[in-house]
Amino acid sequence: MSEITHVLGRIEKDAPEGGVAVVLDRRYATDAADLWQACTDPDRLARWFARVSGDLHEGGDFTIHFDDADTPRCRVVSCEAPSRLVWEWPVGEVTTVVTVEVAPAADGARLVLRHARLGEAQVAGYAAGWDTYVRRLDADLAGKVLPDWDATWSALFARYGAGA
Fold this sequence. Notes:
Blueprint: E1 9-12, E2 20-28, H1 32-40, H2 42-48, E3 51-54, E4 61-65, E5 73-80, E6 84-91, E7 94-105, E8 108-118, H3 120-142, H4 149-161
Antiparallel strand pairs: 1-2, 2-8, 3-4, 4-5, 5-6, 6-7, 7-8
């Protein structure tokens, strides 16, 4: 893995939804339909994110099965296919909110991912996690080897934790 020289996301303190938000705004060399599928199809999600089981439609419940045995049970708040998916993700005693927006862009497709209502103590870890995942999505869409999760997350966690 090449050295991580910069972070891809930003941290918003005092987010409008409350708490702190992690925001990633990325462009991908694919069309919006393919990017939407990569973000909502369980088989595609398993390649770059995690295994997901359940109902990814509005009002549906689904579980994310991370490799470390963390299995948050989430609920889809709204789904406006093929452009916007919002879900609630319980983090401790707080219900955080993840918003995924996909749109066509001149050079392919744009993804804006926002994870809001996080606490100060959690934000560096979630920022590093989402940053790692969007890097893995980029590699998956390009047909490249995915960056190593542990090494990438650790490098990014240090940068986000230092106020990168």
